[in-house]
Amino acid sequence: MPKRNGAWRHAIVVLHYQFETKMNTKQAIAIIGATGNMGAAIARSLAKGNYRLLLKGNDKNALDALSADIKKEHPLADLEAITCSAEASWEADIIILAVPFQAEKEIVEKIREVANQKIVISIANPLNETFDGLITSPLTSAAEELQNLLPNAKVVKAFNTTFAADFATPVIDGKQADAFIAGNDEDAMETVKELVSTAGFNPIIAGDLSTSRTLEAMQLLLIRLGMKYNYNWLAGWKILHH
Q: 154-157 and 119-122 as β-strands: parallel, antiparallel, unpaired?
């Protein structure tokens, strides 16, 4: 009997250790294009959360400056500046491609082998040069094309319906801006929903990845309205309901 009690105590200690380890493990998030307007805005907003941020950019000086700036505002932020997309993505649980649509294919070639089974967030809107249309076919979207390029990753559309300025001011005219999420993996979307909430937006799961076609068209409309009515890049979507 003493041996059995000892075995049970050992099992409980192991389970407790495993639970504590799981609770204390931070999700690592690679932000590819961290020094761009959107990338920097996302990095600043997620620094509030319990994440390890891997900031990837081509300019080490700009990355170091961004890291120092974030540390001033969030002294406990866990972040690292990295200049290699593959290295940042290899360490990450979640990869955010904060780059223009036209740059995604080049990035994919560098991270394909290390993105398997990981969440890859597409924020891109495939706008044409005159901002009056999308360069993708109506039968697809930037997110769906990314999923085709990374068939073994869990691509999720998020943050594409928000401007960079919205991250500093997610409450506009007294209302918290909505941020829409689309994907084919339910667990991945729930994980991204937490990121969106941490960033300060009201997360709404809109549908499967094909819904990205609508979300990308929505942002095209918001950009065109912003240019027409001078919203100064501070505008967002809000679903009003009873």
A: parallel
